Amino acid sequence: MEMDVRFQVGKQRFNFRSAGILIENGHVLLHKEISAPHWVLPGGGIEMGEPSEESIVREMKEELGYAVKAGHVPWIAENFFEYEGEAMHELGFYYILTSPVSHFQEGVFHGLEGERLIYQWLPIDRLENYELMPPFLTGALKDIPEATKHVLVQR
């Protein structure tokens, strides 16, 4: 069994994550834990020895059954935040995803891993009406850069 690159140092936790940006019909696919107030791009932990590009393809297959191709990386984000009382340091690679078939659907739905997470296609032009993490994505998804940008998020 592979292990995600995440570890604890004192009272701080590090997480190495890949996330996918899948856009259809002016909507972006997001998910959240049912009990959480905020939405995030789908993705997950990168396994030791696994390229980040392969990680997001694997995560989308495991979580949703979607066969996707990872392309351009518009953002690499260093994200510092608190989660469940712990100081987090997350390094995230954000990939533009493409799929040969449409996955768009209205309303909330669950993935293949049970009912802990809900997924929804949210309109990009109304993301300010939702709590999106990391927060830079709310505006950034409206104007995705052609060159990769480094983003530092401290909150």
Automatic annotation (TrEMBL):
Q: What is this protein called?
A: NUDIX hydrolase
Q: Which UniProt keywords apply?
A: Hydrolase
User: What lineage, starting at the top, does this entry show?
Assistant: Bacteria, Bacillati, Bacillota, Bacilli, Bacillales
Write down the InterPro entries for this protein, in alphabetical order.
Nudix_hydrolase, NUDIX_hydrolase-like_dom_sf, NUDIX_hydrolase_dom
- What's the cofactor? Mg(2+)
Q: Which Pfam families match?
A: NUDIX
Q: What GO molecular functions are on record for this protein? A: hydrolase activity
UniProt keyword annotation of Hydrolase present: yes
Domain of life (superkingdom): Bacteria
Nudix hydrolase domain mapped to chain residues: 12-146
Q: Write down the SUPFAM superfamilies for this protein, in alphabetical order.
A: Nudix (SSF55811)
Q: Which organism is it from?
A: Halobacillus litoralis
Please verify whether the record's keywords include Hydrolase.
yes
